[in-house]
Amino acid sequence: MKFALRGTTLAFRADPFTVAPDAAIDCNDDGAVIIEHGRIVAVGPAVATLAAHPSIRIESYPGHLIMAGFVDCHIHFPQTEVIASYGKQLIDWLNTYTFPAELKFADAAYAGRMAEVFLDEVLRNGTTTVCAYCSVHPQSVDALFAAAEKRGMAIAAGKVLMDRNAPAGLLDTAPRGYAESKELLERWHGRGRATYAISPRFAPTSTPAQLDAAATLWREHPDALMQTHVSENLKEIAWVKALFPDARDYVDVYERCGLLGPGAILGHAIHLKPREIKALRKSGAAIAHCPTSNTFIGSGLFDLKGLRASDAPIPVGLATDVGGGSSFSMFATMRSAYEIAQLRGHPLHPAQSYWLATLGSARAMRLDHRIGNLAVGYDADIIVLDLASRPLLTERMRHAKDIWDVLFAQMILADDRAVKTVYVAGRDVSVPK
Ligand code: GUN
Ligand code: ZN
Fold first, then answer.
1. Which residues lie below 8 Å from residue 144, measured CB to CB, with a gap of 6+?
2. 331/407 Cα distance (integer angstroms)
3. pLDDT at 360 over 90
4. 236 lines ligand 1 (CB under 6 A)
5. pTM over 0.85
6. Residue 311: band (very low, low, confident or very high) from pLDDT cuts 50, 70, 90
7. Using an 8 Å Cβ cutoff, are 5 and 35 in contact?
8. Distance 376 CA to ligand 2 centre (A)
9. Residue 310 has pLDDT above 90, yes or no
């Protein structure tokens, strides 16, 4: 019931976008975390922390880093099977690969099998919480929440709403999409660790009536999340302009129907105009930065620095966006975010990368008071990372100057092999490699 993990511990004290890196973290070379009833009850230097909890079972991890599990705030559960598909950009990629894959999720048995494959891959990579899009089929949502509940995972998910511009088998209607979402929300939202995310896919696949219906449901359940896509690809933006001639811009399509606000997570947000940025800042909505997707399907270079740097930074989380994204790994995702920031002229500090991949995403999901940190009172969603998971990392670690050098080299070079143990609410749910 009560046990301890011993190794190098990493926790956040403050947001590294607002304080210097060293002031943002608490790191103990030889640290311990005490876990009881699925929660973290103590963290600190090992000797003192363990002395305060005598005769406790200790799992020792010398040469390992103990931190909060990764949080991926934008991922598509039915796209697992189309990850790494060649040669298309957004609209063609959706039509060629994504929609045919999503059609298969009409079959509840198939959705159930794929939910296991998906969550295995998520956990194998050390991600303990996701905010996921399912397909348009309610049975895909039931399948994912049920699989997550079995593992004890805190996830958010929702049925995609689409009532135009997709194959007939993927379309609902405004009233049907509302009714199905409402029923799913009432079944899952707040059950155990589940959160419902109202999920109009994006403006081109929803009529104004459907966006209004989604906003109505959100008004009725303001503590649910709302997720959609915005301003990802230039052809998409031109299409939205043609479909919504009265809107001031892409963000306005959501803003004027009541789909912006705290609890909204907008994927991508790459090509924003000054008015759109101002509207987002005012609204409290968060952005999911999906770097491997933005490069893989050729969408553009997200302006993280510009959107975070201000008196009123827009909340940003980090996300894989599988299958547009090319990896389930938050190491690969942090690496890609670093490369995009470099192309925009500044090096993203590892304090900021790891913060975005844990607390930043948890904050976007409004869960940062209980997940995303290795801190007292937080749920014990914890990963243990082997710092010498490859010969090259063993060698690189010998030359690491400080914790930042360690964290940076890991995020550039590590993959799922580094994920030694995964705890969800204090339970070992590690998946074989
Ligand atoms: N925009 C609308 N749907 C999607 C999707 O499934 N993936 C990505 N990357 N962008 C989208
Ligand atoms: Zn997406």
1. 77, 111, 115, 118, 119, 132, 134, 155, 157
2. 10
3. yes
4. no
5. yes
6. confident
7. yes
8. 33
9. no
